[in-house]
Each structure stands twice: as C-alpha cells, then as structure tokens.
Amino acid sequence: MLTINQLGCDYPQHPLSFTLSVTAGERVVILGPSGAGKSTLLNLIAGFIPASQGEVWIADQNVTALAPAKRPLSILFQENNLFTHLTVKQNLALGLSPAMRLSAVQQEKLLALADRTGLLPLMDRLPAQLSGGQRQRVALTRCLLREQPLLLLDEPFSALDPALRQEMLVLTQALCRENHLTLMMVSHQLADARFLADRCIVIDQGEMAWSGTWQQLEKGDIEAARMLGVTPANDP
C-alpha cells in the first residue's frame, strides 16, 4: 500500500531520511521522543512538506510530485480543522464534495456513516457546540467519507480525557477493519500501540530506529524500549 524510499527534507535539528513499507490493511503506530521527526514523516507522506529527496508510492502510484489534495490518503491532526461556521452535516459533506452538493447516494452514505459514529443527533450543531471528543468524531468521519485507502493520524486524540481517548481508539480500530484501511498513527501514548498496532515504528533523530510488534518491543529490543521509557521483560 505504502512505500517510501530514502524520503527526506531539510530539518533544523538534523537530516531526515525514511525508508519503509506498509502493507494494505496494516495498522502502524509511530513512536519516538519529541522532535524525532514523527509528524514530519506524516507531512512528507501527505505532501504538506515538500521532499528534498526520495519517493512516496501509494497503491503502486508514485505520488511524490502530486499536491496533497491529489494523493490517495486522508490525514487527521490533533487540531481537527473543522470549519467553525458550518454545521456537523456540512463539515461532513465536504468529505464528499467541496461544493457540498451531494447526490442521493452520497446523502445516504453520509447519514449511514454518521449513524455508525454516533453523530446523527448532532448534525445541525456547530463545532463550538460540541465536546472535544465529538469534534474529533466529526473529523474522523469526514476522513472516512473520502474513501481513501490510507489514513494518517497525527496525535488526534491526545487532548481527550482517558475515557474518550479509549472510545476513539476503539472506533478507529473498528472503522479501519470495516473499511479495509491502512493506518499510520503518530502517538506519544504507548497504550495506543498496545491496543491498535499491528506494528510499531520507533523514530529517533530523523530515522527509523526500530520496527516490530508491540510484544517484540516490550520483550526484545532493550535500547528501543528504553528510548520510550519502557522496561523490557528481559532487561536485567
């Protein structure tokens, strides 16, 4: 689904260079210290930061030169970027049509997914009338309505309380499975990796320092685990 080859850009602290592959339907959580380059990696994949070297391939298509809007992906940040003057329904409609003029089929699709994500009672509200968890549900639903095969999440739930955060993780996992999405999520929360990830990637100083399952991280690689503040089971 996703392949990046020596992808990098100019970075104030240190050079960045990433090479990795993610298979279709895989869920990957990206971990690492602050300033390591985790968010920069997602922005390079999405095209918001121009690459100074390397390539990005998504679904067998070289998208390196494409504008962000032309790439077959959706991205959600901690700041959900909802339009404050539009209702929930209008914000969702933007996921299907920039003009918000929907066909009957699109209307049905919007309402079905809004029902699945618990948004039907909120459709006429403005973002300011929603809780933080509700706003993130709107933003996530809008991403899913775009029906892109790759979903990038950059610390989207970090501002939520623990109960809401868990609710959003459960919803994200379910929707990725149901829609056969490939997921890459940046997080500082090790619990996210335990719950969500098929694979963990640890980034440090602009490079991939480690890749494997959460169980391998917890029980195997002492250096990578210590980097994240985890005590490996085999650490003397």
Give a short summary of the structure.
It is built from 8 helices and 10 strands. It is α/β, with parallel strands linked by helices. Strand 7, helix 5 (162-178) and strand 8 form a beta-alpha-beta unit.
Can you offer a commentary on this structure?
The protein has a domain at 1-69 and 183-236: P-loop containing nucleotide triphosphate hydrolases (Rossmann fold, 3-Layer(aba) Sandwich), CATH 3.40.50.300. Helix content is 33%, strand content 22%. It is built from 8 helices and 10 strands. It has helices at residues 38-46, 88-93, 104-116, 132-145, 162-178, 190-196, 214-219, 222-227; strands at 2-8, 18-22, 27-31, 53-58, 61-62, 73-77, 150-154, 182-186, 199-204, 207-212. Helix 3 (104-116) packs across helix 4 (132-145) and helix 4 runs parallel beside helix 5. The longest helix is centred in the last third of the chain and has 17 residues, at 162-178. The model is unreliable at 231-236 (pLDDT under 50).
What's the overall geometry? Answer: globular
In the predicted model, the low-confidence regions spanning at least 5 consecutive residues are 231-236
CATH C-level class of one domain: Alpha Beta
The strand order across the widest sheet is 6-7-8-3-9-10
Q: Determine the number of helices (DSSP H or I, runs of at least 4 residues).
A: 8
Secondary structure tally: strands: 10
| Residue fraction in strands | 15-25%
Helix-and-strand structural type: alpha/beta
- Please name the CATH topology of one domain: Rossmann fold
**What gyration radius follows from the Cα positions, in whole Å?**
18 Å
CATH superfamily of one domain: P-loop containing nucleotide triphosphate hydrolases
H-E order: EEEHEEEHHHEHEHEEHH
> What's the architecture of one domain in CATH terms?
3-Layer(aba) Sandwich
- Summed over residues and divided by their number, the pLDDT gives a mean of 85
Helix content: 25-40%
GO molecular function, one term: ATP hydrolysis activity
GO biological process, one term: thiamine transmembrane transport
Protein name: Thiamine transport system ATP-binding protein
InterPro entries: AAA+_ATPase, ABC_SmlMolc_Importer, ABC_transporter-like_ATP-bd, P-loop_NTPase, Thiamine_ABC_ThiQ
